[in-house]
């Protein structure tokens, strides 16, 4: 694939590459443990943040961990940049392919547990959504059209390019499909107002939009690649090395919250988290929470697997973003701190 990369994404990758050199020249190290106990993080819309769910469930009590929410961001590349540059500590849900791309530039980041995924059993999928009466039936109908995605160069673009290739579109035809970056909460309006022809939607934003009717799905990601963990919680290697016990505690509470989501009804999880949002002055997020149908993590406790990353390496190499021969998949993630790692990783 050779769709042009947006300037901001190119700049972000270059910045991350420069960061490696800065680290080698003796950039400031990790904060001391007493400060590091306050976990700084961004989050994206539409996903359950298991760190916040853990707090809502009381799992942080006695751990010494405090939360410092730095606000929402649009997508994984920005989340990774923030973690890599020590503006935050925990990356919440960047796409596995984006993590692989950044690590391939020499930035030391490691995925420690899955944040979201797609699986048929729960119906948690990415869908290419279009108007019911829009006259679109397959990938070829999108040539010359526009598709909304939450961010460029991440999960959504990888899914679409995979679909286009499987449908037999040539490279020129793929390049003739314009991808329009829009936050999930704005995609429905853009679709209904005719600003885009389709939208790659998932999670609460998709479910909320579908409730309003006159929309249908052209294809699901699981129809193309099967069940998978699409994004992870990510830490700096230097954070892990400086604070191994804190890392174990942090991943442990994340996994406990993931297990809670996987073992309890959506209504129970929504109720717990809704109360937390109200207590933390974020009641404006309640309408999205009401449509949340689960994060769709494909493995018990968010255990990570080679295949969660291997799924996208061919796409990344075709995009010219990585050299597969220079990338070690096992170096992208660790289950060392995940207490669920000894269990079966597939449901």
Automatic annotation (TrEMBL):
Signal peptide bounds: 1-26
All copies of domain SsuA/THI5-like, residue ranges: 53-261
InterPro entries, sorted: SsuA/THI5 (IPR015168)
Pfam families documented for this protein: NMT1 (PF09084)
Record's keyword terms, sorted: Signal
Keyword Signal: yes
Stored PROSITE patterns: PROKAR_LIPOPROTEIN (PS51257)
Glycoprotein keyword on record: no
Domain of life: Bacteria
PANTHER family given in the database record: ALIPHATIC SULFONATES-BINDING PROTEIN-RELATED
Protein name per Swiss-Prot or TrEMBL: ABC transporter substrate-binding protein
Organism this protein belongs to: Nocardioides euryhalodurans
């Amino acid at each position: 694939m050779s769709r042009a990369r947006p300037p901001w994404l190119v700049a972000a990758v270059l910045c991350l590459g420069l960061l490696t050199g800065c680290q080698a020249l003796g950039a400031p190290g990790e904060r001391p443990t007493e400060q590091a106990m306050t976990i700084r993080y961004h989050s994206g819309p539409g996903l359950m943040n298991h760190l916040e769910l853990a707090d809502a469930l009381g799992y942080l009590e006695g751990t010494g961990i405090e939360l410092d929410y730095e606000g929402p961001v649009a997508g994984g590349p920005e989340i990774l940049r923030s973690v890599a540059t020590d503006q935050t500590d925990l990356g919440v849900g960047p796409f596995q392919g984006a993590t692989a791309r950044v690590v391939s530039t020499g930035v030391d980041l490691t995925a420690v547990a899955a944040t979201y995924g797609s699986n048929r059993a729960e119906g948690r999928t990415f869908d290419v959504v279009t108007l019911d009466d829009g006259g679109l039936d397959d990938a070829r109908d999108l040539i010359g059209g526009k598709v909304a995605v939450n961010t460029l160069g991440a999960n959504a673009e990888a899914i679409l390019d995979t679909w286009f290739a499987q449908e037999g579109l040539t490279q020129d035809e793929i390049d003739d499909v314009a991808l329009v970056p829009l936050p999930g909460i704005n995609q429905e309006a853009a679709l209904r107002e005719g600003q885009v022809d389709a939208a790659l939607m998932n999670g609460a934003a998709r479910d909320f939009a579908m409730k309003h009717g006159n929309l249908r799905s052209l294809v699901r990601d699981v129809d193309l690649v099967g069940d998978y963990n699409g994004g992870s919680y990510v830490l700096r290697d230097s954070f892990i090395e400086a604070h191994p016990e804190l890392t174990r505690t942090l991943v442990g509470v994340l996994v406990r919250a993931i297990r809670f989501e996987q073992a309890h009804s959506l209504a129970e999880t929504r109720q717990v988290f809704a109360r937390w949002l109200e207590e933390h002055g974020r009641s404006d997020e309640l309408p999205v929470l009401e449509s949340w149908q689960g994060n769709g993590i494909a493995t018990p406790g968010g255990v990570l697997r080679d295949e969660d990353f291997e799924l996208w390496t061919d796409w990344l190499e075709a995009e010219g973003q990585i050299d597969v021969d220079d990338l070690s998949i096992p170096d992208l993630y660790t289950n060392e701190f995940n207490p669920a790692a000894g269990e079966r990783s597939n449901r």
